[in-house]
Amino acid sequence: MFVVPWKFPVKVSMRGNVITKVEFLKGKEKTIARRPKSGVAAALYDNMLAYFSGERISFNRYEVELRSAFLRRVLGEVRKIGYGETTTYGELAKKLETSPRAVGQALKANPAPVVIPCHRVLAKRGLGGFSQGLDVKRELLRIEGIDLIT
DNA sequence: TATAGTTGGAATT
DNA sequence: AATTCCAACTATA
Length: 150
Description:
By secondary structure, the chain is α/β, with parallel strands linked by helices.
């Protein structure tokens, strides 16, 4: 487990080389940022720092622990969304032949925001929701240069 | 199994 | 613009 310093510090939990959880602290908890010495964790830490400073980073090579097959299906599709691009719940639902609501649920259950870019999935009108807080979602979109209309 | 709740969307008033 | 219905999935009892 390690924490990446940012506007909203990011806490990353891992088991081996697999990411199990990513969360934003938003100043609620106090955790000291520290950098892993080596391995996948160190690479991820560096990638995150670069990402938050505006570099076009892809986290697709990192493995994330996903419980259900449905979650893997939906989030797998989400990971195909490129940097700076967006899609909607409806689009995903159509592609996966499911309902927009089910997609929303899967995204809410996403254990690793940022690594799996669920923030690039918006509602058809406006900007859906975000389990870690909408302020975080807006900030992430802003970093990638996506302008919100509403 | 039954039921209610979801980061939605479309239809209807 | 506000309300109502729909759909696929999950969590809970």
